[in-house]
Amino acid sequence: MSQMKLLRAAVAIFFVVVFFSAGCALNSSPKRKPAYGHSLIPQSDNRYYYFTEAQIQRRTGNLDKAIVLLKKAIEMDPDSLYLKRELATVYLQNKEDDNAIGVLEDILKEHPHDVKSLILYGGIQQVRKNTEEAINAYEKVLVQDPQQKKVYSLLGGLYLDAGQLDQAKRVFDQLIDEFPASHSGHFFLGKIYAEQGKLAAAEKEFQRTLELVPDLLEPRFELLKLYNNQNKNEKVVQIYRDILERNPGNVRAAMELGYYHYSHGRTEEAGEIFKKLGKRSITEFEVIIKTIQLYVDKKKYDEGIIILQGMLKAVPESPDIHHVLGIAFYGKKESQNALAHFRKVTAESRFYEDAVIHAAFILSENKQNAEAIKLLSDAIKNEPQNAEFKYYLGTFHEEEEQFEKAEIAIQEAIKLEPDNPRYYFRLGVVYDKSNKKEASMDAMRKVISLDPKHSNALNYLGYTYADLGKNLDEAERLILEALKYKPDDGYITDSLGWVYYKKGEYEKALEYLQKAIGIVPDDPIMLEHLGDAYLKLNDKTNALKFYKKSLENKEKDKEELEKKIRELSGNGS
């Protein structure tokens, strides 16, 4: 489905509302009251006592304790749907989705038409992207209770996201039948008609939406799309002016109107709008944010550049505008234009760090590592406490094989941010390239201690163990752990194959090394590993085949591989 981001946002908002409304009674007392006063009932026998204590624990964040107390309350009143729904809600708060679903499924087995449980169950399944289960739950809700207004939007949204326009239309038609003044129902019907190319019907629904809620902006922007597609220029300008009369500060409308004038040859009108936006950008950061959201993030680089260049005429030294222009030109792969703008972002700018790093990468891409190093070194003089500058300085020294300088720069970054796993990982790589294997492994262990799910560090340490022929069981464990997080990673798969090779399990090694080559077909080290495995299995033909493929892709350190090929070819020892 195209252009449905608004819908998805609306669906998410509605889900949150529904979800919390399902549990909103948690802070209130139960509707039924005990038949006897508390003084006559021991606390240990009083389900209301456990319920109340559970609420106290929940409010203080002790969700595990709240769950235990709710279970005790349910033991005393096993027929209470209310208590069971409360338990499901607390499970959900405690991120125990499976337990929450289990409780709700138990409720629905005995009470398949319980509306509140169906809503909560549908909401959980929606968040988990189990669309069919969510749809089924919401459909059942509306059969039981057609007055559940929010559920129409949830269900219609799911059908729309699934591209089932007819089903979505049926749901929103039902919403309007039940609630004729539902502006969201008319709005989404308009979206559906627009998707179906029924422009007159779409226009009618958007106009009806505005009759119900005159100040809404989104129906106006939808009408603009319709009128643009039909070349109804006067109506387009009229709506933009209407939006800006109602809200003169609307950045989106101003930008779009300016570009509309520009694209229709009205450059003076466009220029005036862009200059005003440029002046506003100095004091209103929203102007910059909107240009990023509407044009850079959506990769509408040409439009964005025209607008930003027009804004720059009013404030030619604006570092913010230069930065966004740099991103837009970089997106267009015009690296020199991008670099020129990034270089104009001054140290006082909030974008200074990003601009310097972007510029350094552009220089590096153009084989100007020395310039990138100088740029970062100068930036460090401006901001000596900037860890990112020192980290990237280290990476560029590493590319130049200036490993001692790389170590120093990254270690300085670590002093500033001692808990940053990214810095330790890079330091470990530099140590490895410097043939400081023990230091490299120590750095990788540090990464894993800071981030146990760091798949690259898990793989790196495991592969290093395997390459050294030590701690092979631990190497296998580490690499299997890495594969949990990146199951389709060719390099990690190769590492596992190499562990099995080192263990002497050559058939198993061959299985994983073949799989790795299927994912990354041209890596010379992986190709050589596969050749080694074939050789151990006495398949010299395939061994030679993959050694030769490895040699074709290898740029340096070819001597050992060439020796293997000579030996297999019978051309030398």
What distinguishing features does this structure have?
0% strand; Serine Threonine Protein Phosphatase 5, Tetratricopeptide repeat; 573 residues; mainly alpha
Describe this structure as you would to a colleague.
The protein has 573 residues and is mainly alpha-helical. Among the domains are: 178 residues, Serine Threonine Protein Phosphatase 5, Tetratricopeptide repeat, CATH 1.25.40.10; 89 residues, Alpha Horseshoe (Serine Threonine Protein Phosphatase 5, Tetratricopeptide repeat). Helices cover 75% and strands 0% of the residues.
Concise overview:
The chain is built from 32 helices and no strands. It is mainly alpha-helical and 573 residues long. The protein starts with a helix and ends with a helix.
Question: What is the CATH third-level topology name of the domain at 1-178?
Answer: Serine Threonine Protein Phosphatase 5, Tetratricopeptide repeat
The helix content, as a percent range, equals over 70%
Q: In CATH, what is the homologous superfamily of the domain at 1-178? A: Tetratricopeptide repeat domain
State Rg.
32 Å
CATH architecture of the domain at 1-178: Alpha Horseshoe
What is the class of the domain at 1-178 in the CATH system? Mainly Alpha
User: What structural class is derived from the secondary structure elements?
Assistant: mainly alpha
Average pLDDT across residues? Answer: 90
Largest sheet: none
What is the 3D form? globular
Beta-strand level of the residues, as a percent range? under 5%
Total strands: the figure is 0
Terminal Cα separation, in Å? 64 Å
Instruction: Return residue spans where pLDDT drops below 50 for at least 5 consecutive residues.
Output: 1-44
**Count of helix runs:** 32
